[in-house]
UniProtKB/TrEMBL annotation, chains A, B:
Gene3D superfamilies: 3.40.50.2300, lambda repressor-like DNA-binding domains. SMART domains: HTH_LACI. Residues 2-56 form the HTH lacI-type domain. InterPro entries: HTH_LacI, LacI/GalR-like_sensor, Lambda_DNA-bd_dom_sf, Peripla_BP_I. This is LacI family DNA-binding transcriptional regulator. It comes from Streptomyces xiangluensis. The lineage of its organism: Bacteria, Bacillati, Actinomycetota, Actinomycetes, Kitasatosporales. Keywords: DNA-binding, Transcription, Transcription regulation. CDD domains: HTH_LacI, PBP1_LacI_sugar_binding-like.
Length: 346, 346
DNA sequence: TTGTAGGCGTTATCAG
DNA sequence: CTGATAACGCCTACAA
């Protein structure tokens, strides 16, 4: 590994001049610059980032904090972010928090001082904790929950997405549309559930349909997975509440619902239409393929890194948080439209 | 951020003594050590890893190179590795290679000198390239392909796993067992396909069943996904080849097969039993739930980090590669055993 | 058992 | 436009 010193000697200049060239600073004659560039190429010199960081205090390291990777939604988000970070020449340091505030905070106290920025999908963080995280390191949260703190955040179109989904179903003639994934605890970390329920009400009201509490299903846990989706759907069926459509607040729930509905020998979508939210790969490949809201993961990644860049450059407003809501897409598939094997060519 | 210097002043000793205490070196009196520890606690001092690294050349950074994260198998592997790395107090720097040799090599030339170690799931790397990667940085490959180079590798029980699966099916009375995912190009990067096909032949031979080429399906691409699994299965059905069981070399293929088989109005497992390999979450939750080989992801992560630790400590033999094959588990579920909705409580 | 001197590779400061 | 000098925070080598 050659150093700046080596390059300087070879080019017959001082190390500082090499530094200037490497960092594209002005105030170097064209002739000198060429000499230095040649020496750099000959020695295959690459600046040592560690030494640079020691001197400047800045790193090109960005932390990415996610609850899990084994849930496809997070994995797909992580992939989008890593690809985007690459475009910004940032190195990503991924940490799994398990959705526990403790771990979310530990990341900051552990690596915080040596991170140029942090992208976090927070779950357990309180308002106060979110503020202190953002104070310790330039941070962008990806979260459906609004924090009472001046922090940057990228969110999905939770409310508008579900609203559009209910409208979609209503326009297809469904009138008894159930909701799956509601939360009545009111706990702030369940914001996604609250917003999506709001969207559900909006959609009903747009269509002139009544809001019927008996069609609104809670899911036992905050874990929106297939199993709980199936259980809740079975409950709905067993209670004998008539319904002809089901909007789940997450694809995993919807996939479970698909299972439970078919188990009960109801046909999809003739007797019951089903839809989800997240547009996981699994949705496209489900059987029948699942109508879902695509939350714009790629856009979320793009916006998150754009916001973070501002923060890191201190270009961003200091005492106020910014919010970006990504555009959504309604992916209509067999579970509401009918047809067969659309994913043969999906 | 306080420095060793600050701590030294506060404790009334020299910086070197603080260094000794921090690094647990011997040759410090109990009294001094206590004074220093107290000062460290009071100032909440934490050694600056960047400065340390600059001096020692060592980092606690381990690279993790995977083709994708959007395929559940890789995401589950990544999660297992990150959790294991945490136990070793290593920080993981994840890079996505897309399975392209170019990107796999770029990671090394980019971050190589500043990585303490590298865990790579290589796809495009040639023998020669694998050797040069391992030479540049302590490396453990997670790969089914054997390299002609002295590199450490953790692999799955490809052959034994499929063999066991075929035996499982034969013991249930199936006699015309098809294979899905074979590769006849012989290209070394398709080693998993080759080994699993070997296991398929072993299993047939164990059961006294003939090997019938017409029951062996290739998949168009190296991408083992649902779509290709479904297509190949449709082909098999359309060709009119009688078969009563199907061993897919990956769960994604098997999930596609599940779809195609049901599409053809064949019942599972009565008319056709289906099984996969990987034991994805999706397998447990498929409909019917999918019998599969669990490749021991947790063990793979453990072994990979154990091997890497040796390499990094230079404890490992220098001119020879080590191979660890993880134990597998046959997860028998509805797609071969029958029964209904086992995953209700899975 | 403890301390001093020096340098890892880079960049900031200031002088030329 | 260019260069000398010092410093970032830590650790190695050697001395006391």
């Amino acid at each position: 590994m050659s150093t700046m010193h080596d390059v300087a000697q070879r080019a017959g200049v001082s190390p500082k001049t090499v530094s200037r060239v490497v960092n594209g600073e002005s105030g170097v004659s064209e002739r000198t610059r060429r000499k230095v560039d040649a020496a750099i190429a000959e020695l295959d010199f690459r600046p040592n980032p560690i030494a640079r960081n020691l001197r400047t205090g800045r790193t090109g390291l960005v932390g990415l904090a996610l609850p899990h990777l084994s849930q496809p939604f997070y994995a797909e988000l992580a992939e989008a972010i890593m690809r985007e970070a690459e475009r910004h020449d940032l190195t990503v340091l991924t940490e799994l928090t398990g959705g526990v505030a403790e771990a979310e905070l530990a990341l900051v106290s552990e690596h915080g001082p040596y991170l140029a920025g942090l992208l976090m999908y927070p779950v357990g963080l309180s308002d106060e904790q979110a503020r202190s995280v953002a104070q310790a390191v330039p941070t962008v949260f990806m979260s459906e929950r609004a924090y009472e703190a001046p922090v940057d955040r990228v969110a999905m179109a939770n409310r508008e997405g579900v609203r559009a989904m209910v409208s979609h179903m209503a326009s297809l003639g469904y009138t008894r549309i159930a909701a799956l994934g509601a939360d009545h605890t009111g706990r702030p970390e369940r914001a996604a559930a609250h917003l999506r329920l709001d969207g559900y009400r909006d959609g009903l009201s747009d269509a002139g349909l009544p809001y019927l509490p008996e069609l609104v299903c809670e899911v036992g846990t905050p874990d929106w997975d297939r199993q709980h989706g199936a259980e809740a759907t079975r409950g709905l069926i067993e209670r004998g509440v008539p319904f002809d459509a089901l909007v789940a607040f997450a694809d995993a729930l919807a996939l479970g619902a698909l299972h439970a509905v078919q188990e009960a020998d109801l046909t999809i979508p003739d007797q019951v239409a089903v839809a989800g939210f997240d547009d996981l790969d699994d949705a496209r490949y489900a059987c029948p393929s699942l109508t879902s809201i695509a939350p714009g993961t790629a856009q979320i990644a793009r916006e998150a890194l754009a916001l973070l860049n501002d923060r890191m450059a201190l270009t961003a407003p200091q005492n106020t948080g910014r919010l970006v809501v990504a555009d959504f897409d309604l992916m209509a598939r067999e579970s509401t439209l009918g047809g067969v094997a659309a994913w043969r060519t999906a």
